[in-house]
């Protein structure tokens, strides 16, 4: 019976065979397939002079170097589609292309089919069977024939099995499947015919081959670099990434389409509705798992998910989702980077308004305020050609695995073109309106009195999306890419974009209320003694006296903008002479907020002022990120392959409190697996030091990083970049 005659399970009458969705168990093709009838029970006779296969060579080292896959810690061959690789076939006698008929068959999945491109046949010699993959004889010498195989530029990505088939007039005889000839096919940013082609080599090195980086957090005026190990080449990671697609039930036949693959993977990185990789947790209780701030990279997360057979890993927040998604994308060959949007709007109504409700006294009312402005939010960009929309919108695309809103029934976002966001062209797939609001939403303040009556206070059209950054190519410094997403605020191009977006259904807040004739600006900064200095600047634009009744709310916030606790409420009256500018200062002592922080390093201040003479309002907001004690990572010894070196992680508790139940993680890309150490207590004023010995096995640039985590201090990491020199014998 041929492979095409293998019975299939009927899937409830809709289709003849179940759709193959699993790359973990490729089908075993029959060793003998008769082309002519033979008596039952009679085995085919062996012809001593017939062509037969002795060995199949995959030339791993040669092919991996040509395909930029030599960094993968995987014993099998890994190639990129649309690019030729070499296979050596050793026959029992010399191969004669004039008389011998040989084919190579490549299988992926449990139900291979030529029409679904899960069974690929590449013919050599007499046969001229058409195929989406190409093959040619490179060299024939003695009994070995070297063959060049070029997977289609839109080939399915995943693990293929290899069969060499000898075809005669009466039968096909195949080699038996062996794991040594299984090989992986990945996307190919080096191939102009691939959907993910990227022309610049420096960018390919960064966005595909760099296995470490930094993810930016903090606030606009205090960018915090968080080192992150992507680890896409570590042992088991490629299989773990394919397992994610398998567990998500993605049909194999669609895995050559990067758009469809990204949509599936975006949903599967979070576990909100499909038992995906990571459980989101934005509370303060991480006792049932690992705090999001404690992770040093993605490999530990993906390996745990795969080894446990699809049990979601606890816990993640936006940078963990983005870092893990980045690993999967780069591992499969898709150029990707992590983006940070500061003052990122999460608008529950899907329009261009982020509403903040103040109570009668001017405090932020958290019970009524359902929209939020995240101090920062991380997502990913992928570089790809979009064949489903006009080609002008190819290039960088926003994708987001953090579960915020559903898209086609799943918590996922994108891909949506960055250029479409900038131009307000929101009719193109996918989820453009949501991303547009994240970077363009207006902040609208309302005040509600004791009777439930709500009045407009003010509107801020510039607060959201003030700064968008990513890691620079070849550097850990930020690249400022705000201009990729939006035109300068208020420019003619910006106004055109907004008109286009509203014409396509985005609702923007409009008011006929005149602007107040007093300007308010609030500035906040942390001093060396951890006190906070607040400066509020008033400018009276009128030729009359103005009296402002001020109310200031000081809060400890989660990074999502949600309030953890209010620690200060301050009121004051300020009188301004005509056209006068006046500055006021308020010092918030560390003692006022310290007891409320508990690992949340964001303090936000909202100032509200009522102008008595006009009954109009002025408002402003400022968020600061509290500094934390440093965590140092240092190396000593010979930085050479095969020589011992030492990594020292050091931390001094300079806070005024003891730190309890402290976790310290350390890892090094290409150097050191994840190691974890716990301390029951680090007393105030004390120092801990952790030393690990490492023997480098591979030369080149490496990153060593460590993160310390406890309930009092979160998001504390350190790093050191090192270059490992080759062994002198290899020079």
TrEMBL record:
One of its GO terms (biological process) is nervous system development. The active site is at 318, 377, 400. Residues 310-403 form the Transglutaminase-like domain. GO terms for molecular function: metal ion binding; protein-glutamine gamma-glutamyltransferase activity. InterPro entries: Ig-like_fold, Ig_E-set, Papain-like_cys_pep_sf, Transglutaminase, Transglutaminase-like, Transglutaminase-like_sf, Transglutaminase_animal, Transglutaminase_AS. Its EC number is 2.3.2.13. It comes from the Eukaryota. Keywords: Acyltransferase, Calcium, Metal-binding, Transferase. The keyword Transit peptide does not apply. Its cofactor is Ca(2+). It is an enzyme of class 2 (transferase). Belongs to the transglutaminase superfamily. Transglutaminase family. This is protein-glutamine gamma-glutamyltransferase. It comes from Astyanax mexicanus (Blind cave fish).
């Amino acid at each position: 019976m041929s492979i095409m005659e293998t019975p299939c399970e009927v899937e409830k009458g809709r289709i003849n065979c179940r759709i193959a969705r699993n790359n973990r168990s490729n089908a075993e093709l029959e060793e003998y397939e008769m082309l002519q009838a033979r008596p039952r029970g009679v085995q085919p006779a062996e012809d001593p002079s017939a062509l037969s296969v002795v060995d199949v060579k995959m030339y791993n080292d040669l092919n991996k170097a040509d395909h930029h896959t030599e960094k993968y810690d995987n014993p099998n061959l890994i190639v990129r589609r649309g690019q030729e690789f070499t296979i050596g076939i050793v026959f029992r006698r010399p191969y004669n292309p004039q008389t011998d008929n040989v084919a190579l068959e490549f299988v992926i999945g449990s139900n291979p089919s030529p029409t679904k491109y899960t069974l690929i046949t590449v013919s050599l010699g007499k046969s001229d069977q058409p195929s989406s993959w190409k093959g040619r004889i490179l060299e024939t010498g003695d009994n070995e024939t070297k063959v060049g195989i070029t997977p289609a530029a839109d080939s399915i990505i995943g693990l293929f099995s290899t069969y060499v088939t000898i075809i005669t007039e009466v039968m096909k005889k195949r080699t038996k499947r062996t794991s040594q000839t299984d090989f992986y096919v990945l996307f190919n940013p080096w191939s102009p015919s691939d959907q993910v082609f990227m022309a610049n080599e420096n960018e390919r090195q960064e966005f595909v081959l760099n296995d470490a980086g930094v993810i930016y957090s903090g606030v606009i005026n205090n960018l915090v670099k968080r080192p992150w190990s992507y680890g896409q080449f570590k042992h088991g990671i490629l299989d773990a990434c394919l397992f994610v697609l398998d567990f998500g039930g993605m049909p194999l036949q669609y895995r050559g389409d990067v758009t469809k693959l990204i949509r599936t993977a975006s949903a599967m990185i979070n576990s909100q509705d499909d038992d995906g990789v990571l459980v989101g947790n934005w509370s303060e209780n991480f006792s049932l798992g690992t705090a999001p701030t404690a992770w040093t990279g993605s490999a530990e997360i993906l390996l745990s998910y795969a080894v446990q057979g699809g049990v979601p890993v606890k816990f993640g927040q936006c940078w963990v989702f983005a870092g893990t998604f980045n690993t999967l994308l780069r591992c499969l060959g898709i150029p990707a980077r992590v983006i940070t949007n500061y003052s990122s709007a999460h608008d529950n109504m899907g329009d261009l308004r982020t509403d903040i409700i103040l109570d009668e006294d001017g405090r932020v009312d958290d019970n009524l305020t359902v929209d939020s402005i995240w101090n920062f939010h991380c997502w990913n960009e992928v570089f790809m050609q979009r064949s489903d929309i006009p080609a002008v919108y190819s290039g960088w695309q926003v994708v987001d695995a953090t579960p915020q809103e559903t898209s086609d029934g799943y918590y996922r976002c994108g891909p949506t073109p960055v250029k479409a966001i900038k131009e307000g062209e929101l009719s193109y797939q996918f989820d453009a309106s949501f991303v547009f609001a994240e970077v363009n939403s207006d902040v609208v303040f309302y005040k509600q009195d004791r009777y439930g009556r709500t009045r407009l206070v003010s509107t801020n059209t510039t607060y959201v999306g003030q700064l968008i950054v990513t890691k620079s190519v070849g550097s850990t410094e930020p690249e400022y890419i705000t201009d990729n997403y939006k035109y300068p605020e208020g420019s003619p191009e910006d106004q055109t974009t907004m008109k286009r977006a509203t014409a396509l259904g985005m609702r923007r807040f409009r008011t006929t209320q005149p602007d107040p004739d007093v300007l308010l600006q609030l500035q906040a900064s942390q001093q060396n003694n951890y006190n906070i200095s607040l400066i509020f600047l008033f400018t009276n634009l009128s030729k009359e006296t103005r009296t402002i009744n001020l109310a200031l709310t000081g809060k400890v916030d989660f990074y999502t903008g949600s309030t953890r606790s209010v620690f200060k409420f301050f009121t004051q009256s300020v009188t301004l002479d005509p056209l006068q500018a006046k500055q006021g200062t308020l010092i918030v002592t560390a003692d006022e907020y310290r007891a409320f922080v508990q690992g949340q390093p964001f303090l936000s201040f909202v100032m509200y002022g009522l102008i008595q003479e006009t009954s109009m309002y002025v408002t402003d907001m400022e968020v600061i990120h509290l500094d934390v004690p440093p965590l140092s990572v240092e190396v000593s010894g010979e930085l050479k392959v095969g020589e011992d070196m030492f990594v020292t992680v050091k931390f001094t508790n300079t806070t005024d409190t003891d730190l309890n139940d402290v976790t310290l993680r350390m890892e090094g890309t290409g150097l050191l697996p994840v190691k974890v150490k716990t301390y029951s207590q680090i007393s105030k004023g004390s120092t801990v030091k952790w030393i690990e010995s490492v023997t480098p096995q591979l030369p080149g640039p490496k990153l060593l990083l460590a993160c310390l985590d406890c309930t009092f201090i979160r998001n504390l990491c350190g790093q050191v970049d090192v270059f490992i020199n080759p062994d002198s014998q290899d020079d």
